[in-house]
Structure formats: C-alpha cells, structure tokens
C-alpha cells in the first residue's frame, strides 16, 4: 500500500515537473538539465505549446468572468444610488424667514449644518401635492413657531433649539413631530383650563364662607 502511494506521488511530481519545465526552460534556457534531448523532442514541444495555450486561455477567461460578474453589481449600485437621489430630500428651515423661507436639498447635505450656524436641517420626504400645500405649510409653520416658543422659554437661540428638536426627532417624519407638538399644546391647554376651574371653585368656596 505504501509502495502504491509512493508511485502515485512520483507520477504526480512527474506531471508537475513537466508542466513547470515549460516555463523554467524559458527562464533558464542554458541550464544543463534543459540540454537533455527529452526537452527538444517534438513530443515535449507539442506538450509545451499546449500548456502555454491553456494557461493563456484560462487567464483571459478569468478576467472576462470577473468583468461579467462585476457589471450587474455595479449597475445595481448605480440604480440604487439614483433612486435614493430622486426620492430623498432635506428641508432646511431658517427660523428668521418663517415657514415660507424653505430650501430643499439632497439628504446628504444635512452634514453641512455644522458649517451653517443660522440654518438647521430637518429631514423629510418629498413635499406634498398642490392640493395639500396649505396644510403642508401650516404644519411647518407650527414647527417653526414651536422652535421660537422654546427658544424664548429656555433662553436659547433658535438655531440651538431647532437642532435639539431635530436630534430628538431622529428618523421620525415631520408629520409625527407636528402631531407631537400639537398633542403637547392640547395637554397644556387642558392643564390651564383645569387650573382655572379649580381657582374659580376655590374663590366661590371662600366667598360662601
């Protein structure tokens, strides 16, 4: 069994040596081993030509295969990038200009807020149709008013407050931010109304005494 394995190894080494000899002879044509008649016989020349053709053809095919595999991947990346550029925008609010002073930019521009101290970027989807334009602007006016209210209440600049609101909102839409502001305002009104009723009842009770 060991002898059989050894013979198989010799056969494999013979094949490897013959294949390598084709390229070694080109690199070292004057080496004594390649002066042997076996390396100049027609059979070896035919074998050398076949090995060289096979290696060249496989090399070209591998490059072609890589290119063919890369084309669909690149095309998909470009298509995704194009869809992202068409579907995503950034709405930039300048608090001093009111709700009408808006400017749309590509979403990646939100990184510029560090370089634009007077503008705060609030991410949003593409704007509504003309039929809902009034509601669209009204929503954003309420957000701007909330920025001003918090700035006045907390003693901060509108830029800082707007950035804080943008960070608090995270990936949520402006519509969710609007609903949250409206809910808070309704809660404040209800609290004030309840406080007013309590004061009136207390006054009446004092007068009755």
Short description:
The protein is mostly helical and 209 residues long. 67% of the residues lie in helices and 7% in strands.
Structure commentary:
The protein folds into two domains: 2-84; 89-208, no CATH class. 67% of the residues lie in helices and 7% in strands. It contains five helices and three strands, in the order H-H-E-E-E-H-H-H. Strands 2-1-3 form a three-stranded antiparallel β-sheet. A hairpin with an 8-residue loop joins strand 1 and strand 2 (102-106). The longest helix is centred in the first third of the chain and has 46 residues, at 42-87. It is rod-shaped.
Query: How is the quaternary structure best described?
Result: single chain
For the record, give the distance between the C-alpha atoms at the N and C termini, rounded to a whole number.
119 Å
Strand order in the largest sheet: 2-1-3
- What's the tally of helices? 5
- Provide the residue-averaged pLDDT: 67
What's the total count of β strands? 3
Q: What proportion of the residues form beta strands (DSSP E)?
A: 5-15%
Q: In this structure, how is the largest beta sheet organized?
A: 3 strands, antiparallel
Which outline best applies? rod-shaped
Order of SSEs: HHEEEHHH
Instruction: Give the helix proportion (percent range).
Output: 55-70%
The domain count comes to 2
Structural class: mainly alpha
CA-based gyration radius: 39 Å
Low-confidence stretches: 97-128, 197-209
């Amino acid at each position: 069994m060991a002898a059989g394995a050894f013979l198989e190894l010799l056969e494999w080494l013979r094949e490897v040596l013959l294949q390598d000899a084709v390229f070694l002879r080109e690199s070292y044509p004057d080496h004594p081993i390649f002066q042997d008649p076996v390396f100049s016989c027609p059979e070896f020349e035919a074998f050398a030509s076949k090995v060289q053709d096979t290696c060249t053809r496989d090399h070209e095919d591998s490059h072609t295969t890589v290119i063919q595999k890369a084309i669909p991947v690149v095309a998909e990346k470009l298509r995704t990038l194009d869809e992202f550029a068409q579907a995503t925008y950034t709405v930039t609010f300048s608090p001093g200009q009111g709700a009408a002073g808006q400017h749309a930019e590509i979403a990646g521009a939100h990184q510029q807020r560090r370089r634009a101290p007077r503008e705060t970027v609030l991410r949003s989807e593409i704007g509504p149709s003309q039929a809902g334009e009034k509601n669209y602007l009204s929503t954003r006016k309420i957000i701007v008013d909330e920025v001003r209210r918090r700035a006045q209440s907390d003693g901060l600049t509108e830029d800082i407050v707007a950035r804080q609101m943008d960070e608090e909102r995270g990936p949520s839409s402006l519509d969710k931010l609007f609903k949250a502001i409206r809910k808070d305002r309704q809660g404040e009104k209800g609290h004030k109304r309840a406080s007013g009723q309590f004061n009136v009842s207390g006054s009446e009770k004092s007068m009755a005494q």
